[in-house]
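Morning F.,

Quick status update on the modeling queue. The single chain you submitted on Monday has been processed. Sequence for confirmation:
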Amino acid sequence: MMKLYARTGEAEGPESGFRALLYKLEPYFALLVRLLLAALFIYSAWHKIEDPLSFQLKVYEYEFPPASWVSFVNSHAGTDFRAEEWVGPVSLVLPWLMVISGALLFLGLFSRAGAFLQVLMLLLFTAAIEVNIYREVIMSCGCFSEDGHAIGFGLVLRNLILLVLSGYILDRGPGRLSIDHFLLGILRSRKKAKRNKNKEI
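Structure tokens below.
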């Protein structure tokens, strides 16, 4: 959102009207998006951390990347990659990445890094769901519990919406109601003070 300022004799402020309203609402919208994404990812990670074996079985059930993809890569690259070898490490690391990304967005600290992690994970989740829809596999998604919703295009749509929200934070930043903005303000104040001091010298 462009910050347009009306020139007055006394001070500068957002241009009046609709743009001024958007300018005022933007930090609250960004905060709402951050808290929503943080809550969803942390809540989703909770049962995966509590029951890592069940989550490991769910990751294995997805069979992603598919065996046909792995065979194609191995035959052309001369490798001996086996997808099942990564099931254990992925099932252990992924929930904690979800918690870390959620915590960063909740705090508004390194928010773009948290949003970037969520974008990557959502792309991975969506690809795994779409592959299994194409293969006509009937299974639960394992999103918030082991007995969650069956995979389908509704989940793909939900993930796309979450992708847009994560992309918003990645592109626009966490907003003024965040630790990032507070720290940036301190940094800018110090730089300004340093420039003024150099001018005096």
